[in-house]
Amino acid sequence: MGRLTRDDRIVASLLAWGGSELRDLPWRRTRDPWAVLVSEVMLQQTSVARVLPKYRAFIEEFPTPAALAGAPLGDALQLWQGLGYPRRCRNLRETAVVVTREHGGVLPQSLEGLLSLPGIGAYTARAVLAFAHGEDAAVVDTNVSRVLSRLDNTPMRARELQARADSLVPAGLGWEWNQVIMDLGARVCTARSPQCCGCPLAPECGWRSGDGDDPATASAGASRPQGRFEGSDRQARGRALRALAAGARTQEQLIEAMNLADDAARAVALLAGLVDDGLAVRDGGSFRLP
């Protein structure tokens, strides 16, 4: 047997670490493509702690694409409250409608088929292939981008990251490999305080053994600090949706709920945006959830 390559050592070390360190999460206990898709959409820009209770409630209420497709968007939005970015919920329901109408209620099992669905991008499509079907599809999120950039000590564009990730997936272990490398980035190779001393890949890490700036910050998919939430349009839109779910209907009620009585023009523009995004419906002088 020949000597192990650096990539061989990376794969072996990380899989050995993941065998005892992988977090027990409900979406890791299923191979149902719909449940995997729901979890991946919810986890975009949202912490695991916030997703856990919402995921359980959502899957219980909408266990299949047909169940979500047959429900009003407003019902789904009410369950989504607290996760933010409600367009994700709208896109998920649009996907459920397409899957039910055009695919017999079953998610496509090819990359091309998944990418054709509303709001499904390269990351989410590959995640469904890897985590639901066990395919050797490399999944590149913010955490994986950070790990790979630091390992090779170089910033990488999106295509370079995908190619590098593809080169590491061990044959037949797509599910395990992707879960482990994502967990490493989320818990050890973190953006602000990487725990290099406890990292199983420290001996192979180019950034740790070299000098210079963190290459992950200049790579595609690098996490960027979000703007302040307090006082933001996102906060005001969320308040409006919660008020609609609670029974508010008039523009005046919604402006009050948004805490924008002193900036009515901004509030009216935000309400118009919710209508344009399909997240609210205007009936004459009143509003409601879709």
Order of helices and strands: HHHHHHHHHHHHHHHEE
Task: Give the neighbour order of strands across the main sheet.
Answer: 1-2
Share of β-strand residues? under 5%
- What is the helix content? 55-70%
**SS content category:** mainly alpha
Distance between the termini: 63 Å
CATH topology of the domain at 32-133: Endonuclease III, domain 1
Assigned CATH superfamily of the domain at 32-133: Hypothetical protein, domain 2
Q: What's the count of strands? A: 2
Write down the CATH class of the domain at 32-133: Mainly Alpha
Radius of gyration: 21 Å
Shape: globular
Q: What's the number of helices? A: 15
Q: pLDDT average, as an integer? A: 92
Assign the CATH architecture of the domain at 32-133: Orthogonal Bundle
> Low-confidence runs (pLDDT<50, min 5 residues)?
none
Q: Can you summarize the main beta sheet?
A: 2 strands, antiparallel
Describe this structure as you would to a colleague.
By secondary structure, the chain is mostly helical. Among the domains are: 32-133, Hypothetical protein, domain 2 (Endonuclease III, domain 1, Orthogonal Bundle); 233-288, Arc Repressor Mutant, subunit A, CATH 1.10.10. The chain has 15 helices and two strands. It has a two-stranded antiparallel sheet with strand order 1-2. Helix 1 (6-21) crosses helix 11 (174-187).
Topology record:
Blueprint: H1 6-21, H2 33-43, H3 48-61, H4 65-69, H5 73-80, H6 87-102, H7 111-115, H8 122-133, H9 142-152, H10 158-168, H11 174-187, H12 206-209, H13 233-246, H14 251-257, H15 264-276, E1 281-283, E2 286-288
Antiparallel strand pairs: 1-2
